[in-house]
Structures are given as C-alpha cells and as structure tokens.
Amino acid sequence: MRSRKVQVMVISFLIMWTFITYYILLRNSNGQLDAMHQSQQVKQILPKALTERSKSLRLSQTLIEFLRLKYTDPQVTTTPKITIVAAEISNELLEQESKATHAASVATSAQIPTRTYLANGEPVIPILVFACNRISVVKCLENLVQYRPSIEQFPIIVSQDCGDELTKQAIQSFGNQLTLIEQPDQSDITVLPKEKKFKGYYKIARHYGWALNTTFHVGFDYVVIVEDDLNVAPDFFEYFLGTHKLLKQDKSLWCVSAWNDNGKANVIDTAQPELLYRTDFFPGLGWMLTKELWSELSVKWPKSFWDDWIRHPEQRKDRVCIRPEISRTRTFGKIGVSNGLFFDKYLKHIKLSEDFVQFSKINMSYLLKDNYDNTFLKQVYVLPLVTFDELRLNLIAMEGPVRMQYNNRDQYKRITRMLGLMDDFKSGVPRTAYHGIVSFYYNKRRVHLAPSANWKGYDLSWS
C-alpha cells in the first residue's frame, strides 16, 4: 500500500514539474509581446518546451505502465497476434467509435468546410494531414499552404491524435488557413507484452479510421492523405487535379499516389517530370482515394498496420495505383513509430520534383487499363534482353530502352541490390511493379526489370 502511495506521489510531482516548466517558458518568452507576434513566438519556443516536457513525460509514463501491469486484472482481453488476418477490425471497434465519439464527430464535422463542389463543377478535394506529437508538422503545413492554388478547392484539414498541446498550438498558429480536428478517443490500447513495441501502429490505424470517417461524412468524393512528415512539390495539387478523374473512369484503379518508392535521383529520368505509371504496389505517402473506396474499406478497417493490410490481395483485388516517375512528396521524418526504417538507405535520397507540370492540361487516357496494357506490356516484352554487367559497363550497342529478366525471388533481390533499388516485397509485390515489371532509369537509359513472358502472377511466399 505504501509503495502505491509513493508511486502516486512521484507521478504527481512529475506532472506538476511539467506544467511549471511549460508555464515558465511561455511567461518568459511572451512577457511583453502583443497578440500579433504571439503565434511566431510560440513556434520559436516549442522545441525547447517539448524537450523539457518529454523528459518528465518519459519518467511518468514508465511508472504509469508499471502500475498498470502490476495492478490491472490479468484476465483483461488482449489484442490478437499481429498478422494480416488478426489485424482485421471487429465490430467492437466500430461500436466503440459509435458510442464514444459520436458527439465529438458531429462537433468536429461542423468545423470542416461543407462545400463539396465549386461553382464550375470541379470537386473540392480536402487535404487530410495526420499529426500527433511532432511540432515539425509546421514544415509540412507551410509547404502545403505555400503551393496551394485555391483555399476553396483544397481545404487543409489537420487531424491530430495524441493530445499533444505543443503540437496543437503549432497547428493553430496557421489560423484560418486550415481546420483542426482532434481524435477524441485517447484511451490506451491493450496488446500482448511481446507486441508492446507495435502499439503505435494500433493507434495510427485507429486515428486513420476516425479521421477518414469524419472527413468523408461531409460528402467529399475525394480525399488526399498527407502525413505530418512530408514536403510536397510545387505541382502537388495540380498532380491530383489532373489525375482524380481517372479513379472514376477506371474501376481497376483505386488510388493515385504522389510517391515513387524507387525515386532516387540516380534511377529516375529527371527530364520527364510528366511521366506517370500504373503500379500494383500501394505506395502511400501522399495519396488520393475516393468515397466509394472508403465505404468499402471502412467496414473492415484493421486494428494495426493498415498499409500492409491494404496491400493484401483480399483488399487490393487486383486494383492498381497511379504513381509518378519523380516523386511529388518527400519525407523528412526519420524519427517515428518505424524508427527510421529505410530512411538512411533510401528515403532521404528520394528526389522531390522541382518542375511544375500542368497535369490538368495533359490527356491522361494512356493510363486507363486497356490503353496502358496494350502499349506498355507489349512494348516491354519486345525489348532486347541485357545483363547487369552490360548495363553497368554501358556495353549495349543500340540506343533506347532495354529489358532485364529475373526468374525467382533471390535473383530479383540480388539484381535490385546491385542497381540500388528497393528489394523488398509486400504481399508478394515488388515496390513500383506492374505485372511484375519494375521500371527505372539507369545510365541514361530506360530499363524494365521483368519476369518471363509467361508470368503467372505474384507469389505471397516472396514477402
């Protein structure tokens, strides 16, 4: 009993320390400033305040977790083992959302712009930014506001989870440039002890489900999802203006992504910023989906790892995404729930397009399934076969595109590592692949890394 009292006293002290530190910082910084300068001052002191706050929060969270594990009923229901199947949502989560967040959803929905189409018939396409506890979201938002061509057509909606006050203030400093909504369910998520390190992915999935439900509830036909650690290209908005109609025209498409997983400067053609592809791989990282797709996915939304779940054949159903030759997004977020996975080796080298392409003026019909398959697939398999050494040493006599072939998983991984491409698979699909073909640019030449012509489809065992 005494142990519990001591622990409670320690936690109370730490919480008090947090508030005192935060108050002193604000008071010292804002003492004589008038209201017009306060938002700028908040941005300047946020990093320092966040550092002090984190020190105490880490200690208090450690003690709280200890108490929870020691005194919580051991019979409490835990989350199933993490697998694609086990991640399927149960009706329980939907019921919890319905009961616990209905009132909050109604309140936040009222803040979101309700106009879904402009007077000229063009759709309003909200940019839904997901934020948590990183004040660096300011970099993302400044970028979006800078390049946004129309506040009416592209309202920015920032959905914040975690309840972090400093991040909230950073978002609110943009005033009427955006709308802030807050995920109301801040309850803990119980997982098995060995899955504790994955808890962040559970919270992200819960946040995505709530925010997309809230936004689409207004009646928008399209939503573009942006994470808080992304910068966007000058033509980011124009890219989606030019491609959104494809999602309605071609039912084999289910997303448009601004991201190229193999978008490093040495394996893309920087002279073709207008070039787009179809891909079986779901890229994410700045992507657009339709109301119809969300209606389909929302009723079975997973409890965790939503991006791996969405790539599974049961969800993808052979549908594909559009992706660019040169990325229209670039991540600056090395630190996050993924602990910088792939960042140093790949992500920080992704080139962000600097050109402005008027995608809305380009005929996009070549990306429709029948047109694309009748040209792209046929062209690839009549190209001359070359080896990696011939390509690397520039020993190919003819000019123009070439084809390299892989026959098994190990061969594919060996070739991509030599080329500097990403070598992993998700649900058997290589990154950027279309019908197994991965297209890139090497030694000033278009190269298609392709399976044999009698390819039978993706193999889940390759993941």
UniProtKB/TrEMBL annotation:
The cofactor is mostly bound to the substrate. GO terms for molecular function: alpha-1,3-mannosylglycoprotein 2-beta-N-acetylglucosaminyltransferase activity; manganese ion binding. Its main location: cytoplasm. Its cofactor is Mn(2+). It is found in: Cytoplasm, Perinuclear region; Golgi apparatus membrane. It is an enzyme of class 2 (transferase). GO terms for biological process: protein N-linked glycosylation. The chain crosses the membrane at residues 6-26. It is a single-pass type II membrane protein. Pathway: Protein modification; protein glycosylation. It catalyses: N(4)-(alpha-D-Man-(1->3)-[alpha-D-Man-(1->3)-[alpha-D-Man-(1->6)]-alpha-D-Man-(1->6)]-beta-D-Man-(1->4)-beta-D-GlcNAc-(1->4)-beta-D-GlcNAc)-L-asparaginyl-[protein] (N-glucan mannose isomer 5A1,2) + UDP-N-acetyl-alpha-D-glucosamine = N(4)-{beta-D-GlcNAc-(1->2)-alpha-D-Man-(1->3)-[alpha-D-Man-(1->3)-[alpha-D-Man-(1->6)]-alpha-D-Man-(1->6)]-beta-D-Man-(1->4)-beta-D-GlcNAc-(1->4)-beta-D-GlcNAc}-L-asparaginyl-[protein] + UDP + H(+). One of its GO terms (cellular component) is Golgi membrane. Keywords: Cytoplasm, Disulfide bond, Glycosyltransferase, Golgi apparatus, Manganese, Membrane, Metal-binding, Signal-anchor, Transferase, Transmembrane, Transmembrane helix. Its EC number is 2.4.1.101. Initiates complex N-linked carbohydrate formation. Essential for the conversion of high-mannose to hybrid and complex N-glycans. Belongs to the glycosyltransferase 13 family. PANTHER family: ALPHA-1,3-MANNOSYL-GLYCOPROTEIN 2-BETA-N-ACETYLGLUCOSAMINYLTRANSFERASE, PROTEIN O-LINKED-MANNOSE BETA-1,2-N-ACETYLGLUCOSAMINYLTRANSFERASE 1/ALPHA-1,3-MANNOSYL-GLYCOPROTEIN 2-BETA-N-ACETYLGLUCOSAMINYLTRANSFERASE. This is Alpha-1,3-mannosyl-glycoprotein 2-beta-N-acetylglucosaminyltransferase. The gene is Dvir\GJ20329.
